[in-house]
Amino acid sequence: MSDKVEEIDGGEFERTPVPESKLKSWKNFLGMYAGEHAAGTEFMIGPLFLTAGVSAFDLIIGLLLGNLLAVLSWRFLTAEIAVKNRLTLYYQLEKICGKKLVTGYNLANGVLFCFLAGSMITVSATAVGIPFDMPMPKLTDTTPNGFTWVIIVLLIGAVISLIAARGYDTVTKAANWMSPIIVIAFVTCGIVALNQLGVSSFSDFWNIWGEGSEPFPGQIKFTFWHVVIWSWFANGAMHIGMSDLSVFRFAKKAKAGWTTAAGMYVGHYMAWIAAALLYAVYLKSPEAQAFLSNGEAPPVAPGPLANNAIGIFGIIAVVLAGWTTANPTIYRAGLAFQAIIPKVSTFWVTIIAGTVATIAGLFPAFAMKLLGFVALYGFILAPFGAIIVFEHFFHKKAGIVKNYAEIANISFNKSVFFAWAISFGLFYFISVQFDVFLSFVTLPAWLLCGVLFIVFSKYLQKKA
């Protein structure tokens, strides 16, 4: 996430379509997406691919394809619908689902945002802890590993929460300055790591991953399709889940959706691979080899990895990257909570969100299991986007009333609830029962939710 989102989605026109005079050109979105997706999460995700034993082909070609599918989803679904209706996700959902049902969505959204922000506080803490010689959390750690860790996380969480709660002017300006620094840091880390690995040709680069390896203890093996599908749905809540309707409603044309490629190929391609290279360097160290010979996974701690490559600049970049991701995420969580408790001020709901995120940050599991958490996040929220997509494209053919909750003046649209509950329940059961990777069932759950919504709407609207 990036603070730049808030430049565009500036808290205006929450319950009305964006007027023509406020529309922005595609250039506004280009920088925003490049900054948003070269952030704290990237420092964790790149190394985690290595722990999953991916091969060079699976990673390099898989990410190329998966990120393309994500860009196409933004361009032809999110941006397309956003420029037609020019409404925020929350207001669009409220018209279809009703106020009570949207409250449940906001709660889920807010809590998941807090956990994501918490994992970014964890990322920043691994950098801040270096001068204090703090023991770094291991891949298998779920609880805090020491008193120093707790103090550092609490301090970072408090600072981030207070800044997010103070509003967006200062944060946005700071983020605009930080994004290029973070991108330069990723590029520099990648180049230095290639040098440390003795890479002098493309075949040397390819051989870093080679044919892949067994996953590290406690990790699952990633194949080509794991990489493709996971990278497609890493931002599933934003594109097929329609969260970015709130951003693209300010776009002059749906073509602005193509600007998401800047985020996918700078952040989710270059930055992930650069971060993986940092970890590849660390794996050759005696410390990492000692972990492996004991049958343990070497820790993934972004602070030390970046410090090893580019020193103090690396430490600063990791702190900034974690901060620029956690900050707007806490702010958005606060907004989601405010929709539930509107009488509480924005300042205090943001402090509540920041407190939840900081508590989550104490537990390294959210960051260390980020691949799994991001898959779960998309799986829970994306099907709500299917409701909007299917209604938008098929309401006339199916003969159902658009924005039914608003037209019929109901606060709880059963068609939406049953469609989501059945698709979520069925595919979550399949995932757990047959040990199917959650990202693999995100698309089927999304499609089923959309189809069931149309079927239930037709039946219940006729009955009404």
TrEMBL record:
The transmembrane residues are 59-83, 104-127, 147-165, 177-202, 222-241, 262-285, 305-326, 347-367, 373-394, 415-431, 437-456
Q: Which UniProt keywords apply?
A: Membrane, Transmembrane, Transmembrane helix
**Gene3D superfamilies of this UniProt entry?**
Hydantoin permease (1.10.4160.10)
Please verify whether the record's keywords include Transferase. no
Leader sequence range is: none
Kindly provide the name given to this protein in its UniProt entry.
Pedicted L-rhamnose permease
An annotated GO cellular component: plasma membrane
